[in-house]
């Protein structure tokens, strides 16, 4: 989230998924300036409406409480409350300690259909399991390369404990067709476990594009023996 000055004494919050939300300043922090703001989120393929978003700041720590409604294409509304969330202020790309946490091999945890962990959904009503290992290597200061099991390489910029696609849309050309990612965020606090959220499009040769969504991705650092 990037906060910047808005109009008439308000504050704009621009998310990494391309949405901008307007806040009014209160005695204790920030509150949404209205409960009718909406944004199409390309990462999940639907329109979202946030009816509550409270923000407080204590030093470099920011705390949030959110209630969001996702309007699904089938007409169903999903309500997603978050009673307690937090962020840490970061200044640009980089940070040696956080950067080193991403380097090395990570394997997807066993998929779970009950929690939807490592289950990829498509806009064709199908699902498949995400599995295999990703090798993360250094590209340059603050930037890593993710080498995925399909043979593709993806560039991500590290900011604090989060790495995101940079540039925002990337395409890998394979003999079977093209894979594009337009959103991929990876978070690790301890350098042992990763959480991921990813959205993209797969276009196999001679077939129509399929949009894919990994809502709950979980990976664990591979053992030294596995990495070798």
Radius of gyration: 19 Å
Count of strand segments: 19
The overall pLDDT average reads 87
The proportion of residues in beta strands is over 45%
Helix/strand structural class: mainly beta
Unreliable spans are none
Largest sheet: 8 strands, antiparallel
In DSSP terms (H or I, runs of 4 or more residues), the helix count works out at 2
What is the global morphology? Answer: globular
Order of helices and strands: EEEEEEEEHEEEEEEEEEEEH
Give the CA-CA distance, first to last residue: 37 Å
The percent range for helix content is under 10%
Quick rundown:
It is built from two helices and 19 strands. It is mainly beta and 228 residues long.
Could you name the key traits of this structure?
228 residues; mainly beta; 8-stranded antiparallel β-barrel; 2 helices
Fold blueprint:
Elements: E1 2-5, E2 11-14, E3 20-25, E4 30-32, E5 38-41, E6 46-58, E7 61-71, E8 77-88, H1 96-102, E9 104-108, E10 119-122, E11 127-129, E12 133-140, E13 143-147, E14 153-159, E15 162-165, E16 170-174, E17 177-187, E18 193-204, E19 210-221, H2 224-227
Antiparallel strand pairs: 1-2, 2-3, 3-4, 4-6, 5-6, 6-7, 7-8, 9-12, 9-19, 10-11, 10-19, 12-13, 13-14, 14-15, 15-17, 16-17, 17-18, 18-19
Notes on the protein architecture:
The protein has helices at about 95-100, 225; strands at about 1-5, 10-15, 20-25, 30, 40, 45-60, 60-70, 75-90, 105-110, 120, 125-130, 135-140, 145, 155-160, 160-165, 170-175, 175-185, 195-205, 210-220. With about 230 residues, it is mainly beta. The strands form two sheets. Strands 1, 2, 3, 4, 5, 6, 7 and 8 form an eight-stranded antiparallel sheet that branches. The protein has an eight-stranded antiparallel β-barrel with strand order 9-12-13-14-15-17-18-19. It starts with a strand and ends with a helix.
């Amino acid at each position: 989230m990037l906060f910047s000055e808005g109009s008439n004494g308000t504050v704009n919050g621009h998310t990494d998924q391309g949405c901008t939300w307007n806040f009014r300043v209160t005695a204790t922090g920030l509150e949404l300036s209205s409960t009718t703001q909406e944004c199409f989120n390309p990462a999940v393929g639907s329109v979202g409406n946030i009816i509550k978003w409270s923000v407080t700041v204590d030093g470099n720590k920011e705390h949030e409480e959110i209630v969001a409604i996702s309007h699904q294409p089938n007409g169903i509304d999903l309500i997603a409350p978050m009673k307690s969330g937090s962020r840490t202020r970061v200044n640009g790309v980089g940070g040696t300690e956080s950067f080193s946490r991403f380097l090395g091999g990570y394997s997807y945890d066993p998929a779970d259909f009950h929690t939807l962990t490592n289950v990829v959904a498509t806009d064709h009503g199908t699902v498949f399991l995400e599995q295999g290992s990703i090798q993360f290597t250094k590209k340059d200061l603050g930037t890593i390369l993710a080498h995925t099991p399909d043979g593709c390489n993806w560039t991500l910029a590290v900011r604090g404990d989060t790495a995101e696609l940079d540039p925002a849309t990337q395409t890998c050309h394979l003999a079977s067709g093209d894979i594009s990612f337009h959103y991929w965020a990876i978070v690790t606090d301890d350098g042992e476990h990763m959480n991921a959220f990813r959205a993209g499009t797969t276009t196999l040769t001679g077939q129509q594009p399929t949009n894919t969504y990994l809502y709950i991705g979980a990976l664990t650092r591979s053992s030294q023996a596995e990495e070798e």
